[in-house]
């Protein structure tokens, strides 16, 4: 007997469709289905295709449904459901908020925050109540380290889910909550011009030396576009820093690498000094800082570069989609 359901289903769903508890037990023993939470299941082959954030989204849906009608998904769980990248955030516990005095109520897989929640601070997404992006970013910033909070906030800003003004307003609303000062510091470090978690982390490291301009477009003396750079330091002889993320080379890495080499050559022809680093280097910030200092020394010897740079609007970011939709609970087809 096969389980054809691709999304979440409950024991009650299965029994109502003609399956028995013995069928469920045998399927779990064979790992044909896996328990996401007590009484909630998903097919094992479906679960194997999901990353950790998508798996958290399944747990969040199940936990939300079992938690009554006075809760809202918030903090990390809201960030996941909104489709934000949750680099280095804990995904073992579903985070929710209720304004009905359940402060700090924690179980093994759920943390229920008891905090005031206004009607305009949440929305409906995938049949669940979820804190709005601005509230979500500030909640994450209040409760987690600055670097991970900035990565979440940068992405929300880049994809148009919120604005600096909305984040400032959410900070004002949270001024008497734990971590409000931490949230303000994180929001002040966020940028609308970061294209990835790697760029956000890079900026936080580089700005300990000097404030870089992000995603500047470089032109030659004739006004023709040469390249868009990740980081440019106007006060350090216009040194350029490039973060080489894996996604940079896409589905055709050979073609992308050749294009990147040609781009690098065009910048060098202007007398510009470029240094590069990748994701592994982010774990050793001093390596990146040393490269920046070395690049600056080389740039001083070369003298001022030709051409100019300008901050142009970035291309539209790919729209983020709620992460839960493909796997949410739906009709249960009976297998043959």
Task: Give an overview in words.
With 336 residues, the chain is of the alpha+beta class. Helices cover 38% and strands 18% of the residues. It has helices at residues 11-16, 21-29, 44-47, 52-65, 75-81, 133-143, 146-158, 164-173, 180-188, 197-206, 253-269, 285-302, and strands spanning 9-10, 33-37, 40-43, 72-73, 94-98, 105-106, 110-114, 122-125, 128-131, 213-214, 217-219, 225-228, 231-233, 239-244, 274-278, 308-310. The strands form five sheets. Strands 4-5-7-6 form a four-stranded mixed beta sheet.
Which parts are unreliable, with pLDDT below 50 for 5 consecutive residues or more? 330-336
| H and E order | EHHEEHHEHEEEEEHHHHHEEEEEHEHE
Global outline: elongated
Major sheet details: 4 strands, mixed
Give the rounded overall mean pLDDT.
91
Q: Termini distance?
A: 6 Å
E-strand count: 16
User: Which class best fits the helix and strand makeup?
Assistant: alpha+beta
User: How many distinct helices?
Assistant: 12
Task: Work out the helicity level.
Answer: 25-40%
Query: How are the strands of the biggest sheet laid out side by side?
Result: 4-5-7-6
């Amino acid at each position: 007997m096969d389980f054809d359901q691709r999304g979440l289903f409950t024991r009650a769903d299965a029994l109502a469709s003609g399956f028995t508890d013995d069928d469920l037990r045998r399927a779990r023993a064979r790992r044909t289905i896996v328990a996401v939470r007590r009484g909630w299941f998903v097919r094992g082959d479906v679960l194997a295709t999901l990353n950790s954030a998508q798996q958290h989204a399944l747990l969040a849906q199940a936990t939300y449904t079992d938690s009554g009608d006075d809760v809202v998904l918030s903090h990390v769980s809201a960030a996941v459901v909104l489709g934000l990248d949750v680099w280095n955030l804990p995904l073992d516990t579903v985070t929710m908020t209720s304004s009905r005095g359940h402060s700090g109520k924690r179980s093994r897989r759920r943390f229920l925050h008891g905090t005031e929640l206004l009607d305009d601070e949440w929305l409906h997404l995938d049949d669940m109540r979820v804190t709005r992006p601005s509230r979500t970013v500030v909640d994450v910033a209040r409760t987690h380290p600055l670097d991970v909070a900035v990565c979440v906030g940068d992405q929300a800003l880049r994809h148009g889910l919120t604005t600096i003004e909305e984040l400032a307003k959410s900070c004002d609303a949270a001024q008497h909550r734990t971590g409000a000062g931490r949230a303000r510091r994180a929001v002040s470090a966020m940028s609308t011009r970061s294209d990835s978690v790697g760029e956000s982390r890079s900026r936080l490291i580089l700005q300990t030396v000097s404030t870089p301009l992000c995603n500047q477009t470089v032109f030659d003396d004739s006004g023709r576009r040469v390249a868009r750079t990740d980081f440019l330091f106007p006060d350090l002889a216009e040194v350029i820093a490039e973060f080489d993320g894996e996604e940079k080379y896409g589905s055709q890495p050979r073609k992308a690498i050749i294009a990147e080499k040609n781009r690098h050559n065009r910048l060098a022809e202007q007398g510009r000094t470029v240094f590069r680093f990748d994701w592994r280097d982010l774990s050793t910030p001093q390596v990146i800082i040393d490269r920046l200092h070395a690049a600056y020394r080389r740039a001083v010897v070369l003298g001022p570069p030709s051409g100019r740079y300008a901050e142009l609007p970035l291309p539209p970011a790919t729209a983020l989609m709620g992460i839960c939709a493909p796997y949410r609970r739906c009709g249960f087809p009976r297998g043959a």
